[in-house]
Amino acid sequence: MGTTLRFAVLVLVMVVATIGMVNSMFALAPWDDKEILCKFAAGFDPNLRMADSIRLDLRGLRELKDCAPAGAMVKNLPGIVGAGLVLLSAAALYAWLPRWKSRRGRVITLDEAAPDGELRAELMRLVATARLRTVPAFVVDPDSFDAGAVVFGRAGRHTVCLHAGLVAAWRGNAEARAGFHAVVLHELAHLRNRDVDLAYAVTALWRVFLALVVVPFTVLYGGSFVAAQFFGAFYGGDAVFWPAGRAGVLRALASALFMVLLVVLARADTLRHRELYADADAVALGAQRQIWDGARDRGPLVAVPTFLHTARSRVTALWSTHPSWAVRRRSLADPAALFSLGTEQMFLVGWAALVSAHTLSGLWGTTAATWATALPTAVLVTLAVWRSLAYAEHHGLRRPDGLRRPDGLRPGLALGLGLACGELMTGITSGAGWLPEHPEILLALLAGAVLFTLWTVACARLRLRTLGGASLRRAIWPSLLACCLLAAAGVNWWLRFGFLYLAGDILTGASLQQQTIRSFPGPWSEHTTELDWFTATMPQAAMLGTSLLFAGATMVLWVFPLALWLRRTRVHGPAAGLRSAVTAGLLGGVVCLAGLVGVMAHMHTWQPPLGASNGTFSMLYLWWAATAIWAGVALTGAVVAVTSRYRWLPRALVAAGVAQSVALVGKFALGSVDGCLGPLRTLAHTCHWVPGPSWLLTQPLAGLVLPSVLGAALVAVAARGAAAALRLRAPARQPRPAPNAPSAPVRPSRTRSLVTMGGLALLIAVAAVGPVAVAGQRRATAQTSSAMTPPPPPKASERIRTLQLLAWYTLSGKRDIRELSAHYGEFRKQLDGMVQAAKARPHELVRFDSHRLRRTCAALTTDATTARRLPIPDRDLQDPWSSWLGTTLDASRTCVKLVDSNRNNPQENDTMLRGLVQGYTRSATAVGPVVRQVEAATRLWPQWAHTGKGR
């Protein structure tokens, strides 16, 4: 992974962390933050299980949307301003650091150190050897007596500072001069690699970030925790969330400290790697290797046991910015480490990806956050894989087991652990605890990351072996695009659905089962077990299958390696591995069809009669058909992965994709002649060719089975790992080497080429059935509302209930009560005026002012409609309140319609007036308890006493 890309990751992490940490420091008290008020008014309880809180958000989504201010930009404005301030401060420090290093009194000019000009001439010769575009300035530090040097400065104005000990070495013997040449060439190599500017830029950014963000954040949160835990004093609104917020405060502190540790280690590792690159370039420019061979690290100042010294050296080496001489010698002897996948960098990339994704999701939305996070992550991983594989292929490196390195497993595990750690550090689904309710879901991140790196390595190896005369930069672009699509699909799924499962299964359960029974009536009582499995698996598969991004990524997962394999076949001749993979896929498709036949035979035994309701039957048939295909595709992938000696992952993916395509085509064919299959008849009752109804069933089925290729890939990885673990127990035997590509390309026959291209086109066309069906399903889904209504959350404590009531009263209740009371008062005035007029003129007909009455009724309609948008979070108060609003709404609407009709029906007039009078009289029973509870809650929460003073 190049130095520039590593620095880019560090900058991204620091900016994202700055936004999150500054927003946390500037979080306002709940009674001054409208978004928090809206959440409490909708029933939010910080002591709830996270799953209940998410269900509450789903139930109150409309209320929150109407209540909370639109746009996250305003909410995150302090973080954005803070990030800009950090970047500007870092830029100022970056410009000032070179001046500080070259200040007067610290360094002297080269002419002052060597007036004869010989040293300058020697340095100019070395600059010409390094082939630098611009000549740097040279100065001497007279107070540094070691034989070293350092480069500093900014773009276009670099300075090489020679230590006095290095100048003395230049005046020494031949060996000392060789050391001088090695040191200077090493520093010039930094300029040649253009990593000096990046190093100083990140150093400046790190120091500003530490001073302006990390230290204030730690002091504020640490002080808040100590004050709340030991002295009962709270900052802002912490009293509302204590003790539920204790874990959140500690987690925020731990996250900040852990992030600082990660950045320190990553920065040190990056700087160590740039030193190793500079060593390699210096030797390539003519520096003598013996200089590195003769150098030794400093030993301990005090005699200590060897094992303690070794342990101390390993620990201190983690944050040391310069590698030890032993590491430098190993790197010069075998530069493969410079091109390998470092687990530390992969861990940091994964951690940064999840933290950035959640932060940017709150700023820009899920879609923008997906691409902003997935693109740099995929580019970093893909470039690292290609660099390491290109070096291994060029030098013919092999592992002892005969496989070419690297295999992508260790980097994948590191990437997955980073993703899981980043998710835990965000604390989004942890609620009031330290861990989410279901931390085992994090294994999905680990498995996905391992599969992603293994797939990237496999595809890169297939392409590199057919590189021919093509340039590496041009050849990598298709892989980059494919990896970006896969990474985007994974990140998008996690941001939309995946992370929610850490808090529990919020979409399924009793509510979804009851909704399924109501939507698809039938004998569900006889299929309770199937109903449990249906509601547990169908939503997840449907969410995956109805995403066009995920559908495209699923196709790429197996079609892209197939295309690379076919390209290799065209260059080097027929490939036995490809033929065996396609054959295995065809056999797997037959297995899927056999499972479908078994499902059809079972469903035929209780097929509903013609004209009867078949909702239950259709849903179970769809679920069983999807299960049969899933099982067949997963089994195909696992068997191929275990039985393959080489290219096992591409083989397993191609076989799974072919099996899935064959199963979908076979299911469409079977459904088209369903009525002619006798004991296999399921949906039709007469023998006809009916492709239309069969396609209608194939559409949702394709959406459900699209993720089966991904499932097959994960099962293949697990099966391959289990088989490898079992082989470790077996006696060692000589592995059979993988077949090498022929030295000369083989020209395939024209007929075989046409057949190959035709087969590829057919497979891609069949696989495209899935995305086409998904598009149809998305259009159908858009026309229907969600059928999932989560159950209400458990009742909150008295303290939280009063806080929720005050939030509701502040945002909506006070205004609604005032407006409704004012307009009912207007109606009472009109009613009293009519009664007085009737008493004064008992023998005359008294009429209402219809225009005035209509304005009052229209105002009551508006008031009642507005008041119903945000219900009272207290259930005991909400029932009479909701009933009163319903009565008011019905009476006022009847009033408006009657006045607009210009009818003068005494009976209708009396009914309308009785409805308005009933609404007026019921206001006391609905509003009185609310006002009394608000007054009591104000005494419990004096911070909100001003809610009754005209707010």
Notes on the protein architecture:
With 951 residues, this protein is mainly alpha-helical. Helix content is 70%, strand content 2%. It has 34 helices and four strands. Strands 1-2-4-3 form a four-stranded mixed β-sheet, sandwiched between helices. Helix 1 packs across helix 5 and helix 18 packs antiparallel against helix 19. The longest helix has 43 residues. It is flat and about 130 Å long.
Shape: flat
Give helix % range.
over 70%
Q: Can you count the beta strands? A: 4
Strand order of the largest sheet: 1-2-4-3
Which structural class do the helices and strands define?
A: mainly alpha
Regions with little confidence, pLDDT below 50 for 5+ residues = 28-32, 398-404, 735-791, 947-951
**How many H/I helices?**
34
User: In whole angstroms, how far apart are the ends?
Assistant: 57 Å
Strand content: under 5%
Question: What is the averaged pLDDT score?
Answer: 77
Major pleated sheet: 4 strands, mixed
* Whole-angstrom Rg: 36 Å
Helices, strands, pairings?
Blueprint: H1 3-25, H2 34-41, H3 50-59, H4 61-67, H5 77-101, E1 108-109, H6 110-113, H7 118-130, E2 137-141, E3 149-154, E4 157-163, H8 164-170, H9 174-193, H10 196-231, H11 238-241, H12 246-284, H13 290-294, H14 306-319, H15 325-333, H16 343-364, H17 366-395, H18 409-426, H19 442-464, H20 472-496, H21 510-519, H22 528-545, H23 548-572, H24 576-604, H25 615-643, H26 648-672, H27 691-705, H28 708-729, H29 750-767, H30 769-782, H31 798-840, H32 850-867, H33 875-901, H34 906-940
Parallel strand pairs: 2-4
Antiparallel strand pairs: 1-2, 3-4
Helix pairs in contact: 1-5, 1-10, 1-12, 1-16, 2-31, 5-10, 7-9, 8-9, 9-12, 10-12, 16-17, 16-18, 17-19, 17-20, 18-19, 19-20, 19-23, 20-23, 22-27, 23-26, 23-29, 24-25, 24-26, 25-26, 25-27, 25-28, 26-27, 26-28, 27-30, 31-32, 31-34, 32-33, 33-34
